[in-house]
Amino acid sequence: MDLILWRHGEAEESVDGDDDLQRPLTPRGQRQAKRMAEWLDRQLPDGLRVLASPAVRAQQTAGGAGDPGGGGGGQAGA
Predict the structure, then answer these.
(1) Does an H or E element contain 76, and which?
(2) What is the pTM of this model?
(3) 41-63 pLDDT per residue, tens
(4) Nearest-angstrom CA–CA distance, 9 and 14
């Protein structure tokens, strides 16, 4: 089994009182996530399982294109 740890792309700044889990990716973070997803798609086997934090920015990153990717249960498909 292989384990790859991947940090979310650049996220919007936190604003006092806002729920940190709701911070989305910036446009730059969306581009970062897309580029990394394209690279990973070429490197990793079919049937890969991706587990991600329920945070919006992590779900967007796991989705690879800045989309929350379903988000249910802290898991995004790949």
Answers:
(1) strand 75-76
(2) 0.73
(3) 888 887 778 889 999 999 999 88
(4) 14
Q: How many residues does the chain have?
A: 78
Token digits of residue 33: 């996530």
The structure tokens 């990717």 sit at 69
Contact partners, residue 8, CB within 8 Å, separation at least 6: 25, 29, 33, 53, 55, 57, 58, 60, 61
User: Cα angle at 31 between 58 and 57, to 5 degrees?
Assistant: 15
> Using an 8 Å Cβ cutoff, are 58 and 8 in contact?
yes
Cβ neighbourhood burial of 52 (10 Å; 0-12, 13-18, 19+): buried
